[in-house]
């Protein structure tokens, strides 16, 4: 059975799933092998739960005519997604970057959905499995697709672009994320720039933030739509930005008051405004879309617990995002500030050094009390009245049982594996 035959069967289905816990009636189930399981073993269960067809790559689990046997289920999923994308021939906006991908993707989606029927990556399904699933969720009713692409090593963005074939692209930034896989900052720049190379080779369009010299340099020679701050050469010129703590921007006599915290989020907003302008979304709709967007999922969430105001940004962290979050937090016009910061993961040989850089940056500041949690921070432990170290979260939790928060402004940030949102249990 070739990929077109499989696609014809896919079009008969209501949806596609790789998880029997999320099977819908009349869906297509792909049995994708994982590190610790063989999803082929769930093929019969998927059919029993209502799947119309199952795709397997182990003939031992062949059931009946509803079973599609292929050489490799994952590769077939990727080929099917590429075929489906070509079949639909809809415009696709792709984005990648070290920080801010998901927030920017969501902002672009709410802006463009004011004019078009859009479909965007759900959550952070942005890898070699998530991108195909996103593409296969697009239908003939979808007018613009928005695809987030993540990567932790070189050639990954190149591969995802070959599947998604984007017409437009945006790179949020080039930061110190996944240094272990990319082999350092230069590797990050090379890996993310694979999107520029695809767009250039295929005569497509890139959105460029003129505030970022790397974007400016790497996008030279590519058809572009630009934005910048107080930059008359930009296609979109943002006149003013402020954040205390929420970001407000002004352009073309419009003021947008967002629910996003920190100057570091201004670029995410500016990008969404620029893309909205490019696609000729009315400015009043751009304004209302961004002003009504409320961040969730532990990403720059502002919340109140008792007398305490909390900025929960515990979805992820790397040296770049941590540095700007700390800088922004220290600049807030607030009293009784506390930072709860957790280890940053996937930094490889640079890990201890990058944690030391952050510790050193906190030594002399007097604006906030700092709690640093995790083995890498603890390995850089120093004696300082404003900085306290805890090797594990459990030790920190024990400490918090006897700590009283009172009218504090609190920043909580760390890598996903630290799960620092657990700190909320101890704040009242």
From TrEMBL:
Protein name from the UniProt record: UDP-N-acetylmuramoyl-tripeptide--D-alanyl-D-alanine ligase
Organism in which the protein naturally occurs: Flavobacterium nitrogenifigens
This protein's encoding gene: murF
Pathway membership, UniProt: Cell wall biogenesis; peptidoglycan biosynthesis
Predominant location category: cytoplasm
Domain Mur ligase central, first and last residues per copy: 96-275
Protein family (similarity comment): Belongs to the MurCDEF family. MurF subfamily.
Role this protein plays: Involved in cell wall formation. Catalyzes the final step in the synthesis of UDP-N-acetylmuramoyl-pentapeptide, the precursor of murein.
Binding site for ATP: 97-103
């Amino acid at each position: 059975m070739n990929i077109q035959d499989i696609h014809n069967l896919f079009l008969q289905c209501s949806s596609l799933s790789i998880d029997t816990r999320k099977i819908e009636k009349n869906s297509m189930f792909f049995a994708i092998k994982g590190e610790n399981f063989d999803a082929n073993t769930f093929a019969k269960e998927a059919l029993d739960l209502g799947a119309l067809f199952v795709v397997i790559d182990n003939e031992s689990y062949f059931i009946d005519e509803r079973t599609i046997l292929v050489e490799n289920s994952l590769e077939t999923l990727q080929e099917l997604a590429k075929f489906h994308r070509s079949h639909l021939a809809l415009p696709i906006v792709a984005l990648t970057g070290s920080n801010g991908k998901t927030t920017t993707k969501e902002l672009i989606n709410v802006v463009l959905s004011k004019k078009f029927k859009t479909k965007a990556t759900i959550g952070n399904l942005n890898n070699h499995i998530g991108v195909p699933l996103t593409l296969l969720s697009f239908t003939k009713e979808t007018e613009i697709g928005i695809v987030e692409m993540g990567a932790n090593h070189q050639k990954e963005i190149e591969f995802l672009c070959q599947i998604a074939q984007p017409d437009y692209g945006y790179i949020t930034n080039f930061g110190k994320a996944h240094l272990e896989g990319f082999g350092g900052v230069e590797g990050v720049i090379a890996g993310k720039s694979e999107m520029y190379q695809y767009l250039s080779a295929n005569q497509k369009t890139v959105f460029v933030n003129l505030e970022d010299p790397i974007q400016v340099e790497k996008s030279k020679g590519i058809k572009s739509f630009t934005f910048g701050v107080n930059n008359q050469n930009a296609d979109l010129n943002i006149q003013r930005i402020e954040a205390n703590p929420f970001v407000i921007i002004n352009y073309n006599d419009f003021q947008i008051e967002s629910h996003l915290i920190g100057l570091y989020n201004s670029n995410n907003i500016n990008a969404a405004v620029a893309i909205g302008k490019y696609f000729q979304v009315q400015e009043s709709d751009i304004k209302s879309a961004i002003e009504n967007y409320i961040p969730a999922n532990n990403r720059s969430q502002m919340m109140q617990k008792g007398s305490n105001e909390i900025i929960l940004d515990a979805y992820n962290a790397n040296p770049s995002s941590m540095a700007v979050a700390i800088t922004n937090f220290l600049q807030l016009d607030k009293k009784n500030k506390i930072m709860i910061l957790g280890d940053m993961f996937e930094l490889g040989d640079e890990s201890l050094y990058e944690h030391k850089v952050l510790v050193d940056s906190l030594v002399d500041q007097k604006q906030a009390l700092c709690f640093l949690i995790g083995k890498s921070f603890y390995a850089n432990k120093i004696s300082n009245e404003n900085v306290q170290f805890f090797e594990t979260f459990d030790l920190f939790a024990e400490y918090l049982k006897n700590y009283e928060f009172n009218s504090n402004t609190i920043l909580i940030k760390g890598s996903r594996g630290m799960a620092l949102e657990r700190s909320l249990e101890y704040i009242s």
